[in-house]
Batch of 2 targets.
Target 1
Amino acid sequence: MTVTYTTKRTASDLGPRRLHADNINPNVKEAKYAVRGELAVKAEEYRVRLAKGDKSLPFDSVIFANIGNPQQLDQKPITFFRQVLSLLENPALLEKPEALRSSFGYNQDALDRAKKLLADIQSVGAYSHSQGAPLIRESVAKFIEERDGFSANPQDLYLCAGASSGVSTLLNVICHAPHAGVLVPIPQYPLYTATLSLLNAQCVPYYLEEERAWGTDVEAIRQSLARAKAEGTDVRAIVVINPGNPTGASLSPEDIKSVLDIAAAEKLVVIADEVYQTNVFVGEFTSFKKRLRQLQQEVPGKYDHVELASLHSVSKGMVGECGHRGGYFELVGFDPLVAAQIYKFVSIMLCPPVIGQCLVELMVNPPKKGEPSYELYEKEYNGIRDGLHKRALALYEAFKQMEGVECQEPQGAMYLFPSITMPPKAIEAAAAEGRQPDEFYCLRLLDATGVCVVPGSGFGQKENTLHFRTTFLAPGTDWVERIVKFHAEFMAKYQ
Amino acid sequence: MTVTYTTKRTASDLGPRRLHADNINPNVKEAKYAVRGELAVKAEEYRVRLAKGDKSLPFDSVIFANIGNPQQLDQKPITFFRQVLSLLENPALLEKPEALRSSFGYNQDALDRAKKLLADIQSVGAYSHSQGAPLIRESVAKFIEERDGFSANPQDLYLCAGASSGVSTLLNVICHAPHAGVLVPIPQYPLYTATLSLLNAQCVPYYLEEERAWGTDVEAIRQSLARAKAEGTDVRAIVVINPGNPTGASLSPEDIKSVLDIAAAEKLVVIADEVYQTNVFVGEFTSFKKRLRQLQQEVPGKYDHVELASLHSVSKGMVGECGHRGGYFELVGFDPLVAAQIYKFVSIMLCPPVIGQCLVELMVNPPKKGEPSYELYEKEYNGIRDGLHKRALALYEAFKQMEGVECQEPQGAMYLFPSITMPPKAIEAAAAEGRQPDEFYCLRLLDATGVCVVPGSGFGQKENTLHFRTTFLAPGTDWVERIVKFHAEFMAKYQ
């Protein structure tokens, strides 16, 4: 059946429906999320056309370099993880261990792990504790202790449906009024600005230093904070993404201390987004938790009241299991009454996906040396890590060759964020279409090559600078060559 | 290391931390969610004590009758579903079909289904389309078409992490200001009031008719609506839970028409929570979508502009896979520009758990007659359905015997919601503890028997009435006898 509606609208009569674009929640309207916006939608349309045999496009594949989605591209899941998950989904498999071993190569440690998890969660089809299954939180606490050398308490851990869900929870609790503000690095992963928009709270931007490999500039933070305070904003928290998204920057212990110094002095809650903690090529990852505990020992008193929430995820690193929506956050130094409110908040959505929780357990507690599944795990893990680094360098080399493109050396995460200098004529052409110049560039790139990247405007950037973010997940070098060729033609056309 | 904080607080100095219970988001503080509140936390503590060998409690097991969590209790997952999910988690299993069949009893249709899903989603570890994988939305559309006899469009479907997440999305978009209101049945599942609190919007309660098996009273809706409008509330939507939670009531086609009449006349968006659509003992389930399409055919024009969002879930019914967090909602009659905002909103959280999406596919597209897995599926499905009905009736019979307890005949869902008449002395004892009388009753019940139910005050109830909600999921009758015995002693004590 077909139902038709009048499309004519006047100011006083906005059509027969109750909801229209002009009367829904303005905070939802205000929110922006470019990673899955117009470009991503168009790329998906191209993919479907190609899959249906459309030969009219000037490319034969779509490269989704717009989003850190490893298993959509080349990355294979870690065998041990998926073996355990298959046993959790169908525990009947555990009844024939011999057949599992001989036909499918499952080792005893996979079977043991599945049994241990099932003893705690009962079934992956049952709701768990709203903070996450107790055994799994114990494993996460042990992982944090081993990583940092400082104790962690399962009661302070909250498993969540990917770090995004954890960030949303934290910002929901922190932002109390329209003048609540949160310091957010620019460029940033747009989850932060989008969530602050939804909460009708203030994003207080602080700019990262591109010329210093996107380092964190303490002076920039201080200035932003002072400006926001002067404008009446109640700045309550600071977000740090380390390693950085979209920048790929990796913070030094000294940089982390600078942020903690400001947090301690200004009473800012620190939200440390550490989902790329294993994607580090240069130097070594230091967690905010570890640095905070060190400082608390070194300078008794000064940092005792710092509140820190740090996040991790199964989506990134060498795990790359985004589709499973698993993650956790740890609260350090929070008032127990505030933690109780966080518990209530997460309990309204009942619990995070239980199979995703189990994947968190596997990530933080992988096979150990000497265990039967260790060798293959190690091989797969290192293979993924090395492949990522190699592709990052290849892409970096390509960018170095491109006219008007500048790129910081890859340090970590899954992204490069090169700047582009566009000819004035290209900027005029963009304006004629009512678009940001970098958005215009990325659209032309997609139309010409099938390569989907995200314009810098989707993450924020200093005025009069232009960038785009690309992942280095896609296999091969063909797509990099497509970008190089497009770029040369684009520059020539608008010269 | 131990960090200590001063606990002394004055009005002007609320401690050294930035966040405390008095300055976080007041909407979070305001939200109430009794299903996982104090009673549930205490029950979990008892469970842990028993598991650790504590013999000091007057019961030897905790019965979680507070929450519809079938697989925490007796219910086994459907074999076919879990076989397919195990293959999705470890596609390497598909390489040895003979071993799968001979050692583990997988039929060819399970293998075929896994391959078909993998061809669409690539990996359960990859992000999907934010609305859900295209193939899965096609299956859901077919299911709705077969259920209702009216067409459904995959583009109007949004997979979500359980219906709770879908409800949150819808209310986020609908509620535009503090004077936005949503009609919610009382008693209700507290997700609705909690989410409205979080959004700082108005819950406009309408009372269900207990004496008419918790039927929907059109007059009550009209009165609530008129009162709210007079108070300046912009009432935008009406929630209907059918079959009812916590009431178990099942709406007749006539009742549904009454709601749609009001929605059409008053321009209210209808949110139809239909997660218990297969848990119907009395009569037959009619969806709001079907009834709306029928009315649109019968009375051209009158219902054309009605906006309906209906929700379904893998958590309930005979599937009972709550831990997987799978569900969907369908939009009918929504402005495409509003739908675009809903898409953007869900895209901020990237996508629902992909394995949960696959479970949605299995739920709506189970093995068909003639297919190898059909017979076992049918047997398991009917076994669960009959078991639920049997337990509902047994519990109902027990309540009929109890002094001061009245209960409507079970019609559907997973709950009974009996009313209790408490002696004045018991009500005084509750007041002395600063508790609602029904909360007092449920706490005493838990302390004495280990049976955890939820007080009626957690769902809302008419003034001067008291209730509790219990699921009828727990196996056996021992726990019912515990309730009967406790109740007799409670009544005697406070006589």
Target 2
Amino acid sequence: MVADSKTVESSPAISDLTSPVTILPSDHALLHPTIEIHRVGLPLKISSFQKFKYKLSEIFFSDDPFHRFKNQSVLRKWILGFQYMFPILQWLPSYTLQHLRSDLIAGLTIASLSIPQGISYAKLAYLPPVIGLYSSFVPPLIYTALGSSRHLGVGPVSIASLVMGSMLSETVSPTDEPLLYLRLALTATFFSGLFQTCLGLFRLGFIIDYLSKATLIGFMAGAAVIVSMQQLKGLLGIVHFAGKTQIIPVLSSVFHERREWSWQTIVMGFSFLLFLLTARLTGLKKPKLFWISAAAPLTSVVLSTLSVFIFRTSVSEISQIGTLPRGLNPSTINKLYFHGPHLGLAIKTGLITGILSLTEGIAVGRTFATLQNYQVDGNKEMIAIGLMNMAGSCSSCYITTGSFSRTAVNYNAGAKTAMSNIVMSSAVLVALLYLMPLFCYTPNVVLAAIIITAVIGLIDYNAAMRLYKIDKLDFLACLCSFFGVLFLSVQMGLTIAVGVSVFKILLQVTRPNTNIMGNIPGTQLYQCLSHYEKAQRVPSFLILGIGSPIYFANSTYLQERILRWVSEEEERIESKTATTLRCIILDMTAVTAIDTSGIDALRELKYTLNKRSLQLKLGKSEVLEEFSTSGLYLTVGEAIADISIAWKP
Amino acid sequence: MVADSKTVESSPAISDLTSPVTILPSDHALLHPTIEIHRVGLPLKISSFQKFKYKLSEIFFSDDPFHRFKNQSVLRKWILGFQYMFPILQWLPSYTLQHLRSDLIAGLTIASLSIPQGISYAKLAYLPPVIGLYSSFVPPLIYTALGSSRHLGVGPVSIASLVMGSMLSETVSPTDEPLLYLRLALTATFFSGLFQTCLGLFRLGFIIDYLSKATLIGFMAGAAVIVSMQQLKGLLGIVHFAGKTQIIPVLSSVFHERREWSWQTIVMGFSFLLFLLTARLTGLKKPKLFWISAAAPLTSVVLSTLSVFIFRTSVSEISQIGTLPRGLNPSTINKLYFHGPHLGLAIKTGLITGILSLTEGIAVGRTFATLQNYQVDGNKEMIAIGLMNMAGSCSSCYITTGSFSRTAVNYNAGAKTAMSNIVMSSAVLVALLYLMPLFCYTPNVVLAAIIITAVIGLIDYNAAMRLYKIDKLDFLACLCSFFGVLFLSVQMGLTIAVGVSVFKILLQVTRPNTNIMGNIPGTQLYQCLSHYEKAQRVPSFLILGIGSPIYFANSTYLQERILRWVSEEEERIESKTATTLRCIILDMTAVTAIDTSGIDALRELKYTLNKRSLQLKLGKSEVLEEFSTSGLYLTVGEAIADISIAWKP
């Protein structure tokens, strides 16, 4: 709270000065032996085209992707270019047998997770279970060639599946018109891939930054609750279930259809849920035992299938997956839906699921890259994920991205390169070719248990508590998107999340902080009075710190707020001391940018104040001439010293 | 360009130091006699409820409206409260005869302007001309009692009329269903008043700040061109005119219907247009002759009506207004449309015209208040304008606000108080009661000429050029909204204007400046290297200035950009000198706020850099503990001095 100094200077503090200030040259030297008045430098003259170019390059090429090509031979440039496009060319040449062994183990581990997950998530999107398996075969292969993350485990994810399912099923019933529904899902996947690729190509990756972490935490938690509620259908064996996703109709339908509850399903479901949750907890508590949580889903599928098969005559109540087609992904180019009344729906669904899956995929990629200290290129990841979805939509896959659970398992299992994705694909290939008949007796209830276990990890209670502690507004945003998803709809929740995020930025820009500053005795430092107890007001001066760049969105507010500070200060002085306010100094250190409205506001302020010397640091503009060099100082200390000298009688 | 110092210090500059730094205590004292290391003060502990309360009060009560009620007796509080609600109570008691004389002259002058304007703008909104006169009678009376501006001239304005007309006529034809159209216009006015009042009551006035001046300049200019093009119908005497507002269909319809051009109309129209434009120019060039431009519209109406009346047999080609009903505003409470298929349209139109007219009214009010050095209370103006529109919608008035042309004339004519609005109302009342039959022969072509003359002032070429000179991005935003209005539609143009404005804020927040800073030799000042030629790098240190608060929207960018600066610096050092980079100092002076994502980003950055001592100034959070006091300094100079001492061998 206190700005203590390690060594104390003996010269009197500037705040001891009384007004009107009378400083003789010698006094002045005594007060501040090192006080010099520096001329404020204007920015170097650069053409506005160059400025514009710099601005654009910061927006679109802030990562300087062409840096590596500088000063290279033509051949080398081609090689680097290919390596840039296909990161596999970077690591494949130096790939060793040791890498292969690690990747083999990791790949097989995520395969054991991804087969039951694929089937489950496809059901979440109201798609045939086999689509989920197809989606774990083609996209990982493409990502291996194009992606820049070494640990990303690619496949269907719960949030995107849920959103796609809930958006499409609002218009087209997946049970009444399964073919149309499938076509729309594939088309939405195509558009989401196209959108993702375009974002990457046009280097617009930064738009996913507008989804703040705080609102995402709320959205994810809300979606997890919604998904878990949906699983009550499978878990309780209910046949007639609510068509809506909101929590109220779902719960009321659960209790209205009590007669449909099947005790066999319930017993089986809850025992496997218990088993899966225990395995998950074990994996969380002891990271070395991650394989328990990784293997649990497949174990559950195998065990439940076996038990249903053995007791197949007496457990007819338990609904089962049924026959799955054997064979590789069939082509679905001719199934894409480019004409017709539902095209708009497909595009909209594609955009929303596209941006959601990008957000998840890139966040996951970045998280694990930080752990191993390498960088993931956001724009290139978008192209990789986008192309893999476009290719997927032509080969019976629905939307995929980097999945948190798979990536965590992949990382813990010791994956070294994206090769583990190829291993996983091969394992899925074997399953598609030979193991499909085995899933015939797999009960749906175990899939519901797998989904619940997976999405429970999305409820990040600790992160929400942390938000509450650090930033109440962030927490409020989090709550808004949580309850939006829960009580309105997934899309509304998402809209609220984006709206609140953007509104928060706007609010912070619209209402910047302004602080009265004072001198810390014995120094040339000027700090916020409310922040530093030792800081003291300088008589006759009002020093205001402006806390943000001045834009059109805050220029009016700042202008009025500064005038209010001035009148408050005048009232305070009137009641207490005999001095008068003679000069207002604006500390513009934090004003790193100013637009035309900001300049107008400063000009009007100067006109209104009709007072002396505002200290400014700003770019070229005629406003500089108005304030003239005498009104511009490099530091608050220099401004006070110079003005005090001018006030000598 | 250069930071010259007025007095030159003799001690060696810190940038002369070589690395590894060896500073003995005495050396250190010699180098910087006043260097002290200050402990960074944490913000005073205030409860998060208080913080939240402060934040909310800054958002909603930044003008401190309750300030005047402090320390007053109960009776005085009541009086002040009434005066706050009805500003007329503030100035009426001290109203003098001299004031009345000034206001009488000003009121009659704006009446002479507002009668022809009212008729013309009503036609712009496809409403019966008399509605425009009604709208100049009731709303000014209400504004006089409630408004806080002394010079605002209230009445219909061109932009809001145009937008209302183009939005409503897209769905409902004003010629085929005139009654329904009128009802929708009144209902839209009601909702716009309701919306404006709510904005004021809930103190959300700041949302109009999101429409940047730059985009408004473009929007206004585009709208002015569109309105002028629409007047070609009247000016050329065309009967079958394009139903759309975009420039291409309008121009093509003008040339397709060449047979309908009427030379009598054209001759009359262009002569009056010439007369009006000359009068306008005279008023602009010599502000003392403002009354010429103010009286010109009424003169034109009188002259044209007279000439049509005299030559009425031979000028049958020229279309005329026709009979106008005599009498006061009829009540239209029962005409408001609260049920039915077009309710949504009415609400939407109300919202958009409401926000547009607020923007115009408040900007005009503020501009003229600044000239006379008084303040206009934004939120109270919203309530006044909102209530006057709600009352207007019940008494045959369509949307009104503070009009730029009327206010300018009012101000120049020497108005002292809002009483001039009452004078204008009375003059309009006389016109409504006794002069209506005189308008029967008024030709429509002269109204078209009046509209063109009025809207031409909205094309602010100089402001656009100024934008081009100062800020290319602002100019681009201006062009976008200009061409959006011209080639798409008024609403699209407005959407683009808002979108570009918001996107500009987001972009500025997303891509803040980062600069390498250096020491100005002989001082403790650290400034941007590219800005100050004299500033020199400090060996072994990389000093980066962060140019904005750190939010979720820029935390990823900043993290990656800082890493890029570091690697670029390392490359530069490698190629040139033998020293190594040992410490990165972040100058957080401009980082006036940081959210949870920002803190996470700094933590990750610290983890990635795995280097020493980042200088930070930020609010309470656990990140502070991680950096510990040794990593936080009050100034860059102190950080360098302290770290250099620690490096002593």
